[in-house]
Specification:
338 residues; alpha/beta; Rossmann fold; 15 strands; 36% helix
């Protein structure tokens, strides 16, 4: 079976993590990396044995030996490298969110469709073992008809003040909330009907970071399910983990509770018993197992000429809903999703 030759644009935290993961996938070869910080690009390239280093993503996109491009740039800098890759007839993997405006997300989706190119948005939590088990339980009817849900994905204040240098060009909804909404939509097989969001902006602004501290959101789905979503960037530094990630889904005959923070567990409860499926990942794993699984799915869809498991249209829906939540928080009014 042939290898898919890949170029990665942006070799920050996520770009390097992807590079490590692709190196473990038999039918993938990272042929090139590009980063505006040429020194960083060369360091990462040499560290992982990448043969071609570019300071300009346009040069990488024009490389005739590259079949697919993965865009790992900051949230607000996805559109230009994505469109450039597509215009050079490269298949595209793009980190979430697809784009931070509906107009830009539409441009990317239209360009990929026009050229019959594969476009996958890397909502990697779809491959996380607890969430896959949750989906299996829901689809098997194990908790009955879903009624409501609660989800929390937040970071300590270290993330927007130190870990990323561009936090004032995005917000915690794009950075974290996009993951959560995609999971809810995927788990429920349902679309958002209406959203109502509130936000607060005090703590980070006092530290010179011009982005909201948190968003709290109510999402009404077309089926009648209601979900509450919380995303914060101001958890105290003393937290034992940088990320706090929990989800609870309640049905009329049971519930699913997921704790991705402390031990990666899932608890499934029905009318007769409580179960703790085994989802533990060995600490010796060098790369995130579910990140690798998502990337391998992208590689396989190119080899097999099949549809990506997460499409550009999926990414567009998420961008549309996150944009609506932001609008709601700014106007103080619920926003209908068209």
């Amino acid at each position: 079976m042939r290898k898919v030759r890949i170029g990665i644009v942006g070799v920050g935290i996520q770009g390097e993590q992807q590079l490590k993961s692709f190196k473990t996938i038999e039918h993938a070869e990272v042929l090139a990396v590009a980063d505006l910080n040429e020194k960083r690009a060369r360091e990462i390239g040499e560290k992982y044995g990448v043969p071609r280093i570019y300071a300009d993503f346009q040069d990488l996109a024009k490389d005739p030996d590259i079949e697919a491009v993965s865009v790992c740039t900051p949230d607000h800098l996805h559109t230009e490298p994505a469109l450039t890759a597509l215009e050079n007839n490269k298949h595209l993997l793009i980190e979430k969110p697809l784009a931070t405006s509906v107009a830009d997300a539409q441009k990317i989706v239209v360009e990929a469709s026009k050229r019959s190119l594969k476009l996958m948005v890397n909502f990697s939590n779809r491959w996380s073992p607890p969430f896959r088990l949750a989906k299996d339980a829901i689809e098997a009817g194990g908790i009955g008809r879903i009624v409501n849900a609660y989800a929390r994905l937040s970071d300590t204040i270290y993330v927007p003040t130190e870990m990323i240098k561009w936090s004032d060009r995005t917000n915690v909804l794009w950075f974290l909330g996009s993951h959560v909404f995609d999971l809810l939509r995927w788990l429920f097989k349902d679309e958002a009907k209406k959203v109502f969001g509130v936000s607060g902006s005090t703590v980070l602004r006092e530290r010179g970071v011009q982005t909201p501290d948190f968003y709290q959101t109510i999402i009404e789905f077309r089926s009648g399910i209601t979900a509450v979503m919380e995303n914060s960037w101001i958890l105290p530094r003393g937290e034992p983990f940088i990320v706090d990630f929990k989800m609870e889904i309640f049905g009329d005959r049971g519930a699913v509770r997921i704790d991705r923070t402390h031990h990666g567990s899932i608890r499934i409860v029905n009318e007769h018993r409580m179960m703790f499926p085994d989802v533990y990942i060995l600490p010796s794993e060098d790369v995130s197992v579910f990140l690798r699984a998502g990337l391998e799915s992208f590689v396989n869809c190119l080899i097999q000429d099949s549809n990506p498991p997460v499409t550009g249209e999926d990414g567009l829906v998420v961008t549309r809903v996150i944009s609506a939540i932001i609008k709601s928080s700014e106007t103080g009014m619920p926003v209908e999703i068209s």
